[in-house]
């Protein structure tokens, strides 16, 4: 099957380069199985395009590669990715306060949360502004947990974690279709996922939203990103109901 797909694409395509948005590990692995490596890059407008790029000889699925020559990258105490180099912008036009904040300490503060391994290979884990801070003080990046749960629920279109200043995490699960979508499936997936997770990362309740979040209903940006504040506002009653239940 893979050779047939590869032949239909053509023999001249050696690799793909992916940026701008997170790449599913499953998608990256699929292309690798048909013989086309997908190289990830990471960067922002303020860094004049890329800061990192996968090494073609050492692609690690889910990571975006090491910093390119001339670019320095570091982690702040809160896990925020910091960048320094000739590619970093000089500042925001006529916005001195925002410029000073973004370039505090001589580093550009990306707003992204990440991690780096011993070989300098970076992984982007989420946005600092999306961090969920429980009333216990634990900081949780929702994106990895949302992606893990969504992968266990092919019938789900999106998963959004809730829990800021609460005592535990809950999940809004948006169905791609109400046909065949069962609460029991969600419960089973959550129980499997919770196994092995620290207590503060475990999901204790959920609510199934009968339709996906879309641009049309105002819950996705034009780039397909979740409008978390709008989602929280739209489902305030459902969220409150989850927290009135005794957690599992």
Describe the protein's architecture and organization:
By secondary structure, this protein is of the alpha+beta class. It folds into two domains: about 1-125, Luciferase, Domain 3 (Luciferase, domain 3), CATH 2.30.38.10; about 130-245, 2-Layer Sandwich (GMP Synthetase, Chain A, domain 3). It has seven helices and twelve strands. Strand 10 and strand 11 (about 170-175) form a beta hairpin. The longest helix has 12 residues, at about 185-195.
Task: Quickly list its features.
3-stranded mixed sheet; 248 residues; alpha+beta; GMP Synthetase, Chain A, domain 3; 2 domains; 25% helix
Summarize the structure.
The chain is an alpha+beta fold and 248 residues long.
Please give the CATH architecture of the largest domain.
Answer: Roll
Strand content: 25-35%
Number of domains: 2
Largest sheet: 4 strands, antiparallel
Distance between the termini: 44 Å
Give the helices and strands as they follow along the chain.
HEHEEEEHEEEEHEEHEHH
Strand order of the largest sheet: 4-5-6-7
Share in helix: 25-40%
The parts where pLDDT drops under 50 for at least 5 residues are none
What's the number of extended β-strand segments? 12
How confident overall, as mean pLDDT? 91
Helix- and strand-based class? alpha+beta
Q: Would you give the CATH topology of the largest domain?
A: Luciferase, domain 3
Characterize the overall form.
Answer: globular
């Amino acid at each position: 099957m893979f050779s047939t797909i590869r032949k239909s694409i053509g023999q001249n395509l050696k690799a793909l380069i992916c940026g701008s948005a997170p790449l599913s590990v499953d998608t990256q692995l699929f292309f690798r199985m048909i013989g086309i490596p997908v190289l990830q890059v990471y960067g922002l407008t303020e860094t004049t395009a890329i800061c990192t790029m996968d090494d073609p000889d050492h692609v690690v699925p889910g990571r975006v590669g090491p910093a390119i020559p001339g670019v320095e990258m570091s982690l702040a105490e809160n896990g925020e990715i910091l960048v320094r180099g000739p590619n970093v912008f000089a500042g925001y036009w006529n916005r001195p306060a925002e410029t000073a904040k973004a370039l505090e300490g001589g580093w550009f503060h990306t707003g992204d949360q990440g991690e780096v391994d011993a070989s300098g290979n970076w992984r982007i884990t989420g946005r600092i502004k999306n961090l969920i801070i429980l009333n216990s003080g634990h900081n949780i990046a929702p994106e990895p947990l949302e992606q893990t749960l969504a992968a266990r629920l092919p019938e789900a279109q999106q998963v959004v974690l809730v829990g800021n200043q609460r005592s535990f995490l809950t999940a809004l699960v948006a169905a791609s279709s109400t046909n065949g979508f069962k609460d029991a499936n969600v419960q089973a997936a959550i129980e499997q996922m919770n196994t092995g997770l620290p207590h503060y990362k475990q999901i204790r309740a959920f609510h199934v939203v009968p339709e996906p979040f879309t641009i049309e209903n105002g819950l996705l940006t034009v780039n397909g990103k979740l409008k978390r504040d709008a989602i929280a506002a739209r489902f305030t009653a459902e969220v409150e109901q989850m927290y009135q239940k005794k957690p599992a």
